[in-house]
Amino acid sequence: SQTIHQWPATLVQPVGSPLSLECTVEGTSNPNLYWYRQAAGRGLQLLFYSVGIGQISSEVPQNLSASRPQDRQFILSSKKLLLSDSGFYLCAWSVQGTGVNGYTFGSGTRLTVV
Amino acid sequence: GNSVTQMEGPVTLSEEAFLTINCTYTATGYPSLFWYVQYPGEGLQLLLKATKADDKGSNKGFEATYRKETTSFHLEKGSVQVSDSAVYFCALSLPGGADYKLSFGAGTTVTVRA
Description:
The complex is a heterodimer.
Chain A: E1 3-7, E2 10-13, E3 19-26, E4 32-38, E5 44-52, E6 55-58, E7 65-70, E8 73-78, E9 87-94, E10 104-105, E11 109-113
Parallel strand pairs in A: 2-11
Antiparallel strand pairs in A: 1-3, 3-8, 4-5, 4-9, 5-6, 7-8, 9-10, 9-11
Chain B: E1 3-6, E2 11-14, E3 19-21, E4 23-26, E5 32-38, E6 44-50, E7 56-59, E8 62-65, E9 75-77, E10 86-93, E11 103-104, E12 108-113
Parallel strand pairs in B: 2-12
Antiparallel strand pairs in B: 1-4, 3-9, 5-6, 5-10, 7-8, 8-9, 10-11, 10-12
C-alpha cells in the first residue's frame, strides 16, 4: 500500500534562518507531488506541484522554493524565513493522469517562525 | 476557471443534530468531487467522493450526492457526534493530463457540543 511521510511534525525557527521540509512517498512510482500551506484559521494555499523529477511549478510567488531530487521525494526550502512563513505545511501526492482518486495528504508540519 | 464555493462557517451544533454543509462548483468539463476532513492538528483525509452525476458518496455516516443540474455536492450527516468536530473541505478535479490539480473550497469549521 502507498504511504506518505512528512517531517518534522513541528518546527520553531528564528526569522532569517533556513528551512528544509521533506516529504517522501512509498509504494508508488511517478506520483504527482504537492506542497500546500494553511495559515491559522484559513484555507489551503497551493505553493508548488511537481509532475516529475526536477519539474517544479510554482503557484504563488513566495519566499520559498521546492525541489524534487528523486521520484518520490519532495523538499520545501527557504534561505531566510520570514514571520509570515508561519503556518501548517502539507505535502500530498496523487496518481498521474487521472482525477478520480484525489490526493493523499501527509500529516503536516507546524512551522512557527519567531 | 474551476472553483468551489463552500458554506461559510463556523458551524456549531449539539450532539445528534443534523449537519449540512453546502458546496457548489464551477467547472469546464466533467469534474470528480470530493469531501476532505481535517481533525485538529492533523492533515487532510479523504472522507468521500463521487465521480459522475447522481453518484452518492458515503462514509462514516456522511453522505453527498453529485448534482450536475444544480452543480452541487452538499455534505450531510443525520446525527453528529463530538468526534465529528473538524474542518471540512469540498474539492473538485478535472481528470486528464499529467498535472491535474484539486480546487479546494475555503473550508468549514464544525464544532459539535455534547
